[in-house]
Write a structure and sequence with these properties.
homodimer, alpha+beta, three-stranded antiparallel β-sheet, 10 strands, 44% helix, 21% strand, DNA-binding
DNA sequence: ATCTATCTGAGCGCTGGCGCACAAAAGGCG
DNA sequence: CGCCTTTTGTGCGCCAGCGCTCAGATAGAT
C-alpha cells in the first residue's frame, strides 16, 4: 500500500542516498514506501523474511527473545541503515525479532530484487556488507557493555543512539519499554533516569523523554557509544555524508 | 614458513572442505600452513589485516579490549570457521583482537587472493557470508548471555564450545585466562569450576581442565549454547558434514 | 468530573558478583 | 632438594541489580 508514489524520500535513508545513480535507478521501481507504527513486529525470530527495510524516519530495534520471555536488544537501525541482513547473507532469517521502536516511514524491497542487485557485486553489495560489519560492531559492543557497565551508563548510551537516529529530542518511550530493550528491571531504569533528571540532562513525564543536554550525556556515557559511532564513520563515511547523525 | 608442502590438511577445516573442487583448486596455491602457539595475537584491534585464517586444529578467540584493559570474548573460531571476516566485508579491520586460545595449526590466505575468489560470487562467497551470519549469532548470544545468565552457566557454555572445537577433552587453560575470556573475576571462575568439579562434570589441576561428563554439562548450560549450535547447522549444515563437531 | 488503566516512585530483603588480601598447593628450575 | 613462581582456595566487606509490593501521579476515556 504505497503512501507516496515517488521515491524521492528514499534519499532520506543514508545507504540508499549513497548509491550511484545507475544502481539506484534499477532499485527504484522495487522500493515500496511503508508506514511503520510503534510496536509493529517487522519480523519474528526464525521467520523467513520477504523484504529488506530501509528506514527513513522510523527506528527499528533488533530484539533477542529468550525462552522465558525475557528480552534484550542487540542492535538498532534508523535512517543510517537497514533491517534484514539475513536476506543477502544467505540465512533468510535470524534468531531475533525486529520491532518498530519509533513510528515512522521506511522503504522496503523484495528479496528477489535485493539479491539480484547484490549479486552484481557493485557499490550496493559493498555498502550492504560494510553496513553488516557495522552491525556486528554494534552487537559486539552491546555484549561488552552488558558485561561491564552500569545501567545508568547503558541508559545514556541508548538515549544518545536514539537521539542520533531521531529528528527530534523527544522520545516516546516508557521506562518499562526501555527496560525490555536493555534487558533490565523497570525499576532500574526509573532510578537511572531519575538520576539523569536530577542532573538536568533529561526530563520525562509519563512516556515521553526529552533530552536536554547532549554534551553532558556524552560525559556520562561509557566508551561504547563513541566506539560504535566511529566505526560507522570509518566503514561508511566515504559513502554517506559527514555528520550524518547531526541533530538540529 | 610452510611447515607442510601439501594442502591436504586444509580439508580439516570444514569450510575449506566444503568447497567445490574447482574453487578449492584456485585457492590451493595461496593456502599457507602456519603453526599458531598459545597466546599468539593473530591481529590486534584496529590493525589492518593481511591474511584470513582457516584453523584446522587451533582455536582462536575474538577478544574485545576495553580502554581500562578489561577484556571480554565475543566469539570463537576453530576448524568450523575462519578468522578475519573484515577482509571480505570491506572494513579491513575490526575493533577487536584475535588471540590463539588453543595452540594448533591453520591455513592462511592473502587478502588479495581471498578478495578475488570472493568476488566471483560462487560457493566461496556464499559460505563466507553464511559463516559471517553465524558469527553474528554467536556474538548476539554472547550479548544476551552476559546480560541474563550466571557465571556458572556461562562457564559451562564456554567449556562445551571448546569441547566441540577440540580434538580432546583436555583443555590447557587456567581459571585466570578463562576469567579474561568471560569478562569476570578469576575467583568467580574458580568457584563456578569448583561447583562443576564437585558435581563430577569436570576435573582440573593447575591449568588443565578435563571434561568428564558432557551430557551433564549440557544439562547445566543455558539455552544459549544450543541456539548457536543449531544456527550453525541451519546456516552451514548443507555445506559441512553432519555432526561436524562430534568428539570421540 | 470521575473513573480507570498506565506509568513512576519508593521501600523492603536477597543474592551474585566485585575488589581486596592472603594462604595453601603444585609445578619448574637452578 | 629447596626456592620461587604460578595457580587455586577462602574469607572478608560492599554494592548493584533483582524480585516483590504498594502508593501516588497522570493522562485518557466515559
Amino acid at each position: 500500500m504505497p503512501v507516496v508514489k515517488n521515491t524521492d524520500d528514499a534519499q532520506l535513508n543514508h545507504l540508499l542516498a549513497a548509491l550511484p545513480a545507475d544502481e539506484f535507478a534499477r532499485l527504484k521501481s522495487g522500493l515500496e514506501p511503508v508506514s511503520l507504527p510503534l510496536g509493529k513486529v517487522i519480523y519474528e525470530s526464525g521467520e523467513h523474511l520477504e523484504y529488506i527495510y530501509f528506514p527513513t524516519t522510523a527506528i527499528i530495534s533488533l530484539l533477542y527473545v529468550m525462552e522465558n520471555g525475557a528480552t534484550a536488544e542487540i542492535g538498532m537501525a534508523g535512517n543510517d541503515g537497514l533491517v534484514g541482513v539475513a536476506l543477502f547473507m544467505g540465512g533468510s532469517t535470524t534468531p531475533n525479532r525486529a520491532v518498530v521502536q519509533s513510528a515512522g516511514n521506511a522503504f522496503r524491497l523484495r528479496s528477489k530484487a535485493l539479491k539480484f542487485e547484490f549479486g552484481l557485486g557493485a557499490t550496493f553489495q559493498n555498502i550492504l556488507l560494510r553496513y553488516t560489519q557495522y552491525l556486528m560492531t554494534q552487537i559486539s559492543q552491546t555484549a561488552v557493555c552488558n558485561r561491564l557497565h552500569s545501567v545508568e551508563q547503558q541508559l545514556c548510551r541508548w538515549l544518545l543512539i536514539n537521539h542520533d537516529l531521531l529528528q527530534t529530542n523527544k522520545l516516546i518511550m516508557t521506562h518499562d519499554l526501555i527496560a525490555n530493550m536493555l534487558g533490565v528491571r523497570r525499576e532500574g531504569v526509573s532510578i537511572a533516569a531519575g538520576n539523569l533528571q536530577k542532573k538536568g540532562l533529561i526530563k520525562y513525564v509519563r512516556g515521553t523523554i526529552t533530552m536536554l543536554d547532549r554534551k553532558e550525556l556524552e560525559g556520562v556515557v561509557c566508551e561504547c557509544y563513541a566506539v560504535v559511532k566511529q566505526e560507522y564513520d570509518r566503514l561508511l563515511g566515504k559513502y554517506v555524508s559527514k555528520n550524518s547523525s547531526k541533530i538540529p
